[in-house]
Structures are given as C-alpha cells and as structure tokens.
Specification:
By secondary structure, the chain is an all-alpha fold. The chain contains eight helices and no strands. The protein has two domains: 55 residues, Winged helix-like DNA-binding domain superfamily/Winged helix DNA-binding domain (Arc Repressor Mutant, subunit A); 55 residues, Orthogonal Bundle (Arc Repressor Mutant, subunit A), CATH 1.10.10. The longest helix is centred in the first third of the chain and has 20 residues. It is elongated, with a radius of gyration of 21 Å.
Length: 154
Amino acid sequence: MQGQSGRLAQAIAQSLRWLRVRDLSTYELAQRLAAKGYDESETREAIEWLRAEGYLSDERLSERLTERYTDEQPSGRSRIEQEFARRGLSPPELEGDEESRAVHALFRRFGEPPAEAEPREVARWFRFLLQRGFEPELAQNALRRWNPRLNDEP
C-alpha cells in the first residue's frame, strides 16, 4: 500500500512540474503520465486530485485557448479545431465571422496596409493567413477588406 501512495505522490509531483511550465488538458496529462510508466489507476487518482485542488481544468484551458486563437493570434476554424483535437478538447463555439478574424490577424501582424503593395508582399500576407488556418478564398476576401487597394489590381 505504501508503494501505491508513493507512486501517486510521484505522479502528482511530476504533473505539477509539467503544469508549472504550461497548462495541459486532462488528455495530455494522462498521455504524459502513461508514457512515464504510471498505471491507469495512478493516473486517474492523480488527475482527480489535481482537479479537486484546481491545478487542472479543461474548462479553463479551453477558455484560454479560445482567447488565444480569436484575439491574441487570430486563427481560422480549421487550425482552432485541429489544436483542440490535438489536446483532447471539444472545439469551442466561435463568435463573430471568420473573415473578420482574418482581417484582425492582418492588422495585429502587419498594422495598417501600405499604400502600394508588391506582389511579393501580397503573397506573404496570403501565406500568413493560410498558415493561421484560414481557407484560401476567405484569405483573399480578408486581404481585400484589409487593403481595399488590392481590389484595383488585375
């Protein structure tokens, strides 16, 4: 019995070290503990304790990720869904339209659009939006909203 409680204490201590670095979902923490050799019951008990003490919260992590991917680093629906799935979380219900989020991403990254843009710059902006998970057509529309002068281009 002493060995079991010692292993549980080790699992909790290890989890706290990981959580001190960054928030993890229950799924991610369970995967990490399993990789370290903790059995299912030790993992379950450690997670229950961490939740009860407020160190682990999928809801808090979900809110934080939603804020990150809608305000701080505006991203497309596909990237958001991919990130949530990777962490074992349900994707959020997003408010506002995706095109506005793409325009917001452009303003945050590049500021006000320049008076004239080289095709190379336009391609760079477009790639930026694609990397953030926005669909190509939506990225083109967002670029035109962000920089109306692009509508005059052939």
